[in-house]
Amino acid sequence: MFITTLRSNTIKFICITALSFLVVAALVVFVPTYESTSAPSKVNYQKVYSNSDRIDFISQFGWNVNQTPIEEVEVTIPSEFDTVYVGYNDIQKTQGLDLAKYRGKEVVRYTYQVTNYEDYEGVVYINLLVYRNKIIGGDVCSADSAGFIHGFEKSGDDV
């Protein structure tokens, strides 16, 4: 015959452990998963080798542009970000990009004129920053000095 004794502390510990396990299991089973609508969609920023690759990249956001870039220039991402670059990098971060990794690097900026920007009469450009055949940043902006700038998405908030 076996005699076992359980102290009240042992019983409390077992009950609390079991209850904790049940709560975690219930959360996993019953809490729905939500997909964030503000998160960038599955955009491929890699393998941008030619002008047609850049045009294809731009068109996935719904933009139509002139087929030839109006400007193709090498620029250097500054080593130290001033307030302007901090704000510009915030736009990049909303797109799932970050220019901080490319500080001091030489990149190529391609500028295209957008031909289908709705509800705006002025000239609109899209800029792509490309480093080693990868898009590392960019924006859609107006040519006006008091205009707007936002990320690639058409629904982007004007800044």
What features would you describe in this structure?
- With 159 residues, this protein is α+β, with helices and mostly antiparallel strands.
- The protein contains three helices and five strands, in the order ααβαββββ.
- Strands 1-2-3-4-5 form a five-stranded antiparallel sheet.
- Strand 3 (124-131) and strand 4 (134-142) form a beta hairpin.
- Mean pLDDT is 86; it is low at 35-40.
Entry summary:
The chain is an alpha+beta fold and 159 residues long.
Q: What attributes does this structure have?
A:
159 residues, 3 helices, elongated, single chain, alpha+beta, 28% helix, 21% strand, five-stranded antiparallel sheet
Structural class: alpha+beta
**Main sheet: strands, sense, barrel:** 5 strands, antiparallel
- This entry's quaternary arrangement is single chain
Q: Which H/E pattern describes the elements?
A: HHEHEEEE
Question: In percent terms, what proportion of residues is strand?
Answer: 15-25%
What is the arithmetic mean of pLDDT? 86
Number of beta strands: 5
